[in-house]
Amino acid sequence: MEFKNSLVFAQQLDAIDPLRKYRNEFHFPKVKGKDVIYFTGNSLGLQPKRSQKFIDDIMKDWKDLAVEGHFHAEKPWWDYHERLAAPLAKVVGAKTPEVSVMNTLTVNLHMLMVSFYRPTQKRFKIICEEKAFPSDQYMLNSQVQFHGFDPDTAIVEVKKRPGENFWQTQDVLDKINEVGEELALVLIGGVNYYNGQVFNMEAITRAAKAQGAFVGWDLAHAVGNVGLNLHDWGVDFAAWCSYKYMNSGPGNASGIFVHQKYLNNNEIPRFEGWWGTRKETRFLMKPEFEPMENADAWQVSNPPVLSLAPYLASLEMFEEVGMETLISKRKLIVAYLEFILQEIDKETEGSFEIITPKDRGCQLSVFLHGQGKELFNYLMENGVITDWREPNVIRLAPAPFYCSFADMYNFGQILKSGILAKG
Ligand SMILES: Cc1ncc(COP(=O)(O)O)c(C=O)c1O
């Protein structure tokens, strides 16, 4: 399609957007009385309007039924989490039993490391990407130290090539083969939080499995954003938060994936709690732990229904729309944003550069030349909500559920006036 940098053209794209009615399903913050242009779905997705009712229902059941709500609410609380598994499995390309929702992301990564990082003197190394999200670095370091190893030798980072802003898949594969029999685990962010790059999860998983290692993915920036096929790729485990593209609310619950081959397995080590034991016999309060036959075996505590409620509301929309439609709009809107950026860059003589490679999802990271945080501040003051990453990067993520093509055009105009204002 030949794009044009014009409002009329953008509005034409909006008119044929199959997701256009979903924009009105979300609450937009306002700046100067106008809906913002929201580019931070990669940090915290907007609030779906329907999430309020899901929360209100729980509050009402609690008011009217108190403890009886566990079993007699319209959506009983004791197995409330089970409602999220089937729609989430579609989002991540899993079988329903492979998915569960619990805790928060870093907690779940630690819990899954109990099962999937079991180092020996010979096989103890972990491969991750350089400058992984800090929480993942802390998690990996502390796990390695907990097992009595030194992070300097046990953690092997794949670096970007000098002068390049992204990781080459071949470099990840080479590193896996180089570490070889010492490799215990590969754990990488499926979509990098800084440059928005999508890793080739299938090829990396295959290579790591061929070396006899476990493979886990942190899908914080991937879930609800890019196509995932965790089961067929043979991924061992994954975890993700739900507050970015999944629009479930700040700090909200995390999902996990554990491949079918580890389900119903009493041998696999796990930190256990009462919600992981079989629900048929749970309330007999027996001392023996009998794992649930699905990924709920990793669930420790009873489900936090007040936070699962808005997650379920949001998943209802993912069910209605499907990942395919979301992904095709995402590709088009990101391509249009890229075009707008290129046009503005021409008009402002190279004021910035896109550092996100073509293997990308929703996010374009833009490195500013000769501009600083004042441009970011200008955008915020003028109703563009974006985020800033040191030293000079603005991240733009037009989430397909609620961003419009007209937003992309209008953003370009605001960006241009911000750059020109500085002179
Ligand atoms: C890639 C990545 N990993 C881990 C985290 C940490 O998530 P949480 O604070 O929910 O544990 C985040 C949060 O933004 C993230 O982006």
From TrEMBL:
<feature type="binding site">
    <location>
        <position position="105"/>
    </location>
    <ligand>
        <name>pyridoxal 5'-phosphate</name>
    </ligand>
</feature>
<feature type="modified residue" description="N6-(pyridoxal phosphate)lysine">
    <location>
        <position position="244"/>
    </location>
</feature>
<dbReference type="InterPro" id="IPR010111">
    <property type="entry name" value="Kynureninase"/>
</dbReference>
<feature type="binding site">
    <location>
        <position position="106"/>
    </location>
    <ligand>
        <name>pyridoxal 5'-phosphate</name>
    </ligand>
</feature>
<dbReference type="GO" id="GO:0030429">
    <property type="term" value="F:kynureninase activity"/>
</dbReference>
<comment type="pathway">
    <text>Amino-acid degradation; L-kynurenine degradation; L-alanine and anthranilate from L-kynurenine: step 1/1.</text>
</comment>
<comment type="function">
    <text>Catalyzes the cleavage of L-kynurenine (L-Kyn) and L-3-hydroxykynurenine (L-3OHKyn) into anthranilic acid (AA) and 3-hydroxyanthranilic acid (3-OHAA), respectively.</text>
</comment>
<dbReference type="GO" id="GO:0019441">
    <property type="term" value="P:L-tryptophan catabolic process to kynurenine"/>
</dbReference>
<dbReference type="GO" id="GO:0009435">
    <property type="term" value="P:NAD+ biosynthetic process"/>
</dbReference>
<comment type="pathway">
    <text>Cofactor biosynthesis; NAD(+) biosynthesis; quinolinate from L-kynurenine: step 2/3.</text>
</comment>
<dbReference type="GO" id="GO:0019805">
    <property type="term" value="P:quinolinate biosynthetic process"/>
</dbReference>
<feature type="binding site">
    <location>
        <position position="302"/>
    </location>
    <ligand>
        <name>pyridoxal 5'-phosphate</name>
    </ligand>
</feature>
<protein>
    <recommendedName>
        <fullName>Kynureninase</fullName>
        <ecNumber>3.7.1.3</ecNumber>
    </recommendedName>
</protein>
<dbReference type="InterPro" id="IPR015421">
    <property type="entry name" value="PyrdxlP-dep_Trfase_major"/>
</dbReference>
<feature type="binding site">
    <location>
        <position position="221"/>
    </location>
    <ligand>
        <name>pyridoxal 5'-phosphate</name>
    </ligand>
</feature>
<dbReference type="InterPro" id="IPR015424">
    <property type="entry name" value="PyrdxlP-dep_Trfase"/>
</dbReference>
<dbReference type="GO" id="GO:0097053">
    <property type="term" value="P:L-kynurenine catabolic process"/>
</dbReference>
<feature type="binding site">
    <location>
        <position position="243"/>
    </location>
    <ligand>
        <name>pyridoxal 5'-phosphate</name>
    </ligand>
</feature>
<dbReference type="GO" id="GO:0030170">
    <property type="term" value="F:pyridoxal phosphate binding"/>
</dbReference>
<dbReference type="GO" id="GO:0005737">
    <property type="term" value="C:cytoplasm"/>
</dbReference>
<comment type="similarity">
    <text>Belongs to the kynureninase family.</text>
</comment>
<dbReference type="Pfam" id="PF22580">
    <property type="entry name" value="KYNU_C"/>
</dbReference>
<keyword id="KW-0378">Hydrolase</keyword>
<feature type="binding site">
    <location>
        <begin position="133"/>
        <end position="136"/>
    </location>
    <ligand>
        <name>pyridoxal 5'-phosphate</name>
    </ligand>
</feature>
<comment type="subunit">
    <text>Homodimer.</text>
</comment>
<feature type="binding site">
    <location>
        <position position="218"/>
    </location>
    <ligand>
        <name>pyridoxal 5'-phosphate</name>
    </ligand>
</feature>
<dbReference type="GO" id="GO:0043420">
    <property type="term" value="P:anthranilate metabolic process"/>
</dbReference>
<dbReference type="InterPro" id="IPR015422">
    <property type="entry name" value="PyrdxlP-dep_Trfase_small"/>
</dbReference>
<keyword id="KW-0662">Pyridine nucleotide biosynthesis</keyword>
<keyword id="KW-0663">Pyridoxal phosphate</keyword>
<feature type="binding site">
    <location>
        <position position="274"/>
    </location>
    <ligand>
        <name>pyridoxal 5'-phosphate</name>
    </ligand>
</feature>
